[in-house]
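Running log. JK asked me to keep both predictions on one page so they can be read side by side. First protein, sequence followed by its C-alpha cells:
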Amino acid sequence: MKKIKKDELSKLQELVNSIQEAQSQLGGLELQKHQIIAAANAARELLNDVQRELQEKYGEVNISLATGEITDADNPQD
C-alpha cells in the first residue's frame, strides 16, 4: 500500500484542521450575531413601550435625549 510522506500528511492535517477551526469560529460568530439581533429587537420593543407611555402622559411632543426637555411636536420652537 502506498502512502504519502509524513510531512505531507502533517501539512494536509494542519490545513484541514485550520479550515475546521475557521468554520467553528464562524458558527460561533453567527450565534453571537443572532443573539445581538435578538437583544437589539428586545431593546426596540422596550423603547416602543416607553415611547407609548410617554405619549400617553405628555401627548404628542418631542423630547430631547440630551436634556429631557419637552417641545411641542407641532411647533418645536416653543
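And the second, directly underneath as requested:
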Amino acid sequence: MRVLLLSANTGGGHNSAADAIRLQFEQQGVGCEVRDALSFVSEIHSDIISSGHTYIYRYFPQLFGIGYRYEERHPPRFIYEQMALGAKCFASFLAEQSFDAVVSTHIFGSMLVTEVRKRYGVTIPHYVVITDYALYPGTDMVDVKRYFIGADGLIPAYVQAGISPDRLIASGIPIRSSFLEKHNKAEARKSLHLPERARIVLLFSGSVGCGRLHRIAPELERNLPSDAHLVIICGHNKRAYDSLLNHSGPRTTVIGYTNRIAEYMAAADLCISKPGGLSITEMLVMQLPMVLMLSVPGCESRNQTFFAENAIAVATQDWDETFQETVRLLCTPDTLSDMRHRMRQIGYPGGAEVIVNTVLNDLNNT
C-alpha cells in the first residue's frame, strides 16, 4: 500500500504536517511519497508562487489580508485555474505510479486532484488536511472524501459552507511526535540550562521576526516581574539572532535554530507567538498558555480568534498590549491554571494518528 502526500512551500506548516502524517503511515508499514503540488504545474511556477506568497505575507501583511478576505467572499477561481495547469502532468504521474490514496495538506493540492478527477476520471480516494483553525477560501470547491479539521468547534462553519457533516473529521492538526511525549518541567529546565525557579516566558520571533526585536526585547525584559526570564527562539533568522545577542539583558536567553522546541515549551510558563496553525497546536498539546499577537489577516487572525474565543489564549494587537497581558497573566497564576485546564478539556484528538487510521480504515473497507 502506498499513499501520496501533496504539500506546498507556502509556509512551513504544510510541509511539517505532511511529514508528521508520513511518519505515522510509515509506522503502520505504509509507503509514502511527499510532493509539492505546485511542482506539477512547473518548478518555476512553484518558486514564483511560493516566494511571492511568502514575500507578500511577510512584508505586506495588510495586502495579504485584503486578498484573503476577497477570496473568502468570492471563489478563488484564479488560483484553481493556476493549479489546473498541472492536471495533465499530475495525471501522467499518477498513471505511472501506484498509489492507493492522496492526502493533501494544502488546498492547492486538493484543487489539483479535483481537476484531474474532473478531466480524466481519476477515482483515487482523496483527503484534505486543514492546517489552520479556519475555513479556507475554496474549500467548498474541491472534491474530497473527507476533510480533516482542527477541532469540533469548526464543524458548523464547514456545514454552513455546504459540506456534509459525515465528511468532516475533527482530527486535530498533525504535529510531530515529540510534542506528544510527556515532559517534566524541572528536567526540561535543567537540560536546557534555564533558571529552575524563574517564571519563564517563551517568545517565538518567527522566520522574519516580530517587529524590531532588538529594541523590543530589552523593553519586554524590563516590564517582566523581577523573577521572570525571557527565552527568545529566532529559528533560521540569523539577523534577529545576531542583533538580539548584542541588545539583550541578563534575564534574556537568545536561541537560534533548535530541534528542542518541545523541551522549551515544557520549560515555559507562558508563550508569546504568532498564531500559526502548527505552533499553536503544539502549545495546545503542551498545555502552554499563550499570548497571540501580530497575526497576519487571514488564517492567522482566524486562528487567533478561535483560540481567544475558547479562552485558551489571549489575543493582542501590538507590543504595548502584549507587554500588559504578559505581565497580567504572570501575576495571576489562577488565570494561567484555568487556561491549562481548558486546554485539557479541549484535548487533542490525535492528529496524524487519527488521519492515518481513518484513511487506512476507508481503504480496507472499500
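Observation for JK regarding the second prediction: The first helix runs from residue 12 to 27.
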